[in-house]
Amino acid sequence: MMDGTQINMKKWIVFYPIYVNSKKTIAEGRRIAAEKACENPTCVEMQTAAPISRFRLLLNRRRRSRGTSHRGGG
């Protein structure tokens, strides 16, 4: 962290925008029902929503498999 303390991320849940992208199929990586998902979510939107949902969020902007990235999985 910025204050010099270490973060133990071993027990953190990894959450990608593609998991809640209503434009993706289950086979493409969506993990919730399409009607509960949102269209092309971005990490910035997830960062905004995290405190509301009482989640601590650490953004990792490296590109991931299946075309996911910080731009919302597209």
From TrEMBL:
Q: What are the GO MF terms of this UniProt record?
A: 7S RNA binding
Q: Which GO terms describe its biological process?
A: SRP-dependent cotranslational protein targeting to membrane, signal sequence recognition
Quote the cellular component terms of the Gene Ontology held in the record: signal recognition particle, endoplasmic reticulum targeting
Keyword Phosphoprotein appears in the UniProt entry: no
Q: Provide this UniProt record's keywords sorted from A to Z.
A: Cytoplasm, Ribonucleoprotein, Signal recognition particle
Residue span of the signal peptide, if any?
A: none
The name of this protein is Signal recognition particle 19 kDa protein isoform X1
